[in-house]
Amino acid sequence: MLSAYLGCLLVDENSVDDLFQEVMIVAWRRLDDCDLSEPFGPWLRGIASRLVMAEHRRLKKVPLLLSDGVRVAISEQFENIDSNAGDTWEQRSAVLRECIDSLPADRKKMILQRYLEGQSAQDIATGSDLKIEVCKKQLQRARHRLVQCLQSRGFLLREVLSHE
Description:
mainly alpha
């Protein structure tokens, strides 16, 4: 949804991708500022709109102005989306936990070591008596299964698989 929102504000597809990544970094750093009981989308879009305006100032470009009707329609559409179930941090993290729990025990352990404990693939491989290439491949397959699980529950678009 964030990509869709950025696509409404920016013309260049590369700019959408770049600002998406930047929004994610800012959001991660500022996660403590977010009320996690509230819908997550509006908070992310607030960060995105500030970054878009900063980008326009940096490039000294005047953004294409949308008519009032178009801006209202975009806002209403995103508000409708926000009212759907699954937009709070708790709901999204619960689904992610369920998907992680559905992994085979060895893959679940690797995912938790890598992304919860912050271990490197090399450290995981060494601790599991695996070659680094095998460890990386198993992590890749575990991530792929997580993506499939999240997609089956409607939390990721099908396009995510093509960007792995």
